[in-house]
Structures are given as C-alpha cells and as structure tokens.
Specification:
The protein is 39% helix and 22% strand. The protein is of the alpha/beta class. The longest helix is centred in the middle third of the chain and has 17 residues, at 182-198. The radius of gyration is 21 Å and the shape is globular. The N and C termini lie far apart (48 Å).
C-alpha cells in the first residue's frame, strides 16, 4: 500500500478564533500502481487539504498518514527523525496554479530544479528534462523559453513536466484542466491517461467536471464537509441518489441516455460512457 490514512483529522484556526475542521476521520488507502482516481466535492469540502497530506505538505492534527512505510503524525517533524523530501519525490503534487511552481528564468531550469534538489546530477537532470518535455506534448525548443511567456496550457504542461522529472510513483494534480478551453482540457486528459498507462503510475486528479470523472476514472473519491463519503466506481456513484445531497452534477452522457430512455420508453442493457457507445445501444433497439 503506497498511502494509508488512519482516522485523520485536520483543523486550523479560523478568523473568528475557533478551529475549522477541514478533514474529519479520514480512512483511505491508495495503491501504487494501476489506479486512475478522481477526487470530487464542493468547494471547501477538503479535497486540496486531503492531497496535501499525501506528500506530507501538511501533517494531521490527529491520526496518521503512512506514505511508503513512513508514518506521518502531528509531531513527526518535531521528532527530527523523518526526512520528508524523499516522500515528496515519490508522491508528486502539481498545484492548481502553475505560477506556484514556475520561478526560474528558463523552462529547462524549472524542470531540472526538482531532480537536482534530490541529488540527481546536472547531466542526468537535463536528460530527464528532454524526455519529460516530450511526454507533456512540447518539443525541446520550449526548454530555452521563459516559463512566464507561455500560454496557460503550456505553463500547466511545464509544471507537470517538472514533477514528472522527479520520477514520482504517484502523480497528484489539483484541478489541472481549470481555465482551459475544451480542446486544451481534452489534450491534458489524454496526457494524464498516457502517463497512467504508459508510465504505469497512479494518477489522482481533483476536478469539478463530472464528464471527466465518468469517462476516465477507475475510482472516485467524494469529499463532503471534510468527510470522505464515497470511495468506489463512477458507474455506481452516479446510480445513487446521494449525488443530489452532495451537490454533484450528472455527466452529460448519463443525462442524454436517461432522456432517450424516457422518450423511447425503453431501458438500455448497459450504461454508455461515450456518444459512440450510445449510438450502438440505440441501433440495437430501433
């Protein structure tokens, strides 16, 4: 097991002087390989706080998070016995806003910063940069450019490349497609799918897009008011009545399918994931 949450609670001081509970009694296990996970929930439900625990950016108020055999508790850093950087190398976190990660004068320097910080030689770090820039759909010419002169989509790709260059086992992305046009969103989702399949990495994506959840995820985690209220398959999630209680939307393909079933007075024998799948089902009944 790569990551294990055990009765994790996390709170922080709020403006009125009380403590705000961001996470409540979280029990969760994440596998190292083979999972494409989406993490969803309303704004303020605890999603970002949860993933920040996955590479020890924050520590639980109570409970523990075990990351690749290293147990992280509230007083872990004070004990001085646990080095957290190696954990952050294995669990790579890409922030929602790439500007939080881009600060060097060239794309190359930004990408090699992480590997060099973890002891990789300059030569090997540059070699990794040339490889990962291609993984994210950009050519080597981008390595010479300033990250601050790139488009929003290009900045996101460079920030992802910088994390991939550290060769993490798990890639965590906080709303990576926000602010992108449909093509940019689809291109990035294809990239994450390729990383998952070709590089054999577990990918965890925070998103508000239920179409992404339904089409790509093998597993869905739902946060609601600081609690983990669902952990399972997307097909089962959207067949429950709880999605209204959790203020989640229905994926477009499910909505279209239900309308067709109602108008045609039929019941399809399976739930399509794409329009192409739906066309096939319609042909079978007409």
């Amino acid at each position: 097991m790569a990551i294990k949450f055990e009765q994790v609670n996390f709170s922080y001081p709020s403006f009125d002087g009380t403590n705000f509970s961001a996470l409540k009694d979280i029990n969760l296990e994440i596998n190292e390989f083979g999972e494409f996970i989406t993490l969803i929930g309303e704004t303020g439900s605890g999603k970002s706080t949860l993933v920040q625990h996955m590479n020890a950016l924050v520590r639980p108020t109570t409970g523990s998070v075990t990351i690749y055999g290293i147990k992280i508790e509230n007083d872990t850093k004070k004990k001085g016995k646990v080095k957290l950087n190696p954990l952050r190398q294995r669990v790579g976190l890409v922030f929602q806003f790439p500007e939080y990660q881009l600060f060097e004068e060239t794309v190359l320097k930004d990408i090699i910063f992480g590997p060099k910080n973890f002891g990789v030689s300059n030569e090997d770090a540059i070699k990794r940069a040339k490889e990962v820039i291609k993984h994210v759909g950009l050519d080597e010419e981008y390595l010479k450019r300033s990250p601050f002169n790139l488009s929003g989509g290009e900045k996101k790709r460079v920030s992802i490349a910088g994390i991939l260059a550290m060769e993490p086992d798990i890639l965590v992305l906080d709303e990576p497609t926000s602010g992108l046009d449909p093509k940019g969103r689809d291109d990035l989702l294809k990239l994450f799918t390729d990383i998952h399949r070709k590089l054999n990495k577990t990918v965890i994506i925070i998103t508000h897009d239920m179409n992404t959840v339904y089409k790509y995820a093998s597993r869905v985690l739902v946060m609601n008011d600081g609690s983990l209220v669902y952990d399972g398959k997307p097909t089962e999630l959207f067949s429950t009545n709880n999605i209204e209680n959790w203020n989640l939307d229905i994926p477009d393909i499910i909505s279209i399918t239900r309308q067709l079933e109602e108008r045609l007075n039929i019941k399809f024998n399976s739930q399509p994931k794409t329009i192409e799948d739906l066309f096939i089902l319609v042909k079978e009944v007409i």
